[in-house]
Design a protein that fits this description.
By secondary structure, this protein is of the alpha+beta class. It contains three helices and four strands.
Length: 111
Amino acid sequence: MSNGEPCFLALVTAPDQEVAERLAKRILRARLAACANIVPGVQSHYWWQGELESAQELLILFKTVERCVTPLRELVLEAHPYDVPEFVVLELATGSESYLSWIRESCVSAA
């Protein structure tokens, strides 16, 4: 890992563009992430209430730092329309130091 606070990638799916943009803007305004990439055209297949389901979704990739992961999760769970929204977080093992520094500088929220 590079110098400084660990950086993370949080993955969140959304049912449509409106929800994805609303979540992204709310999280960015709260400074809980440096960036939110919205990736359309995700075809999800999953088990739900004992049945095999499928849906077209969008994937939101949030770039954040360790101290923002918990408040980011709380905001997603509170604002998301799904009963069980996806919130999966991966630590970034390495990356461009200038990009990782930008993530750290952009995430100014402590809570």
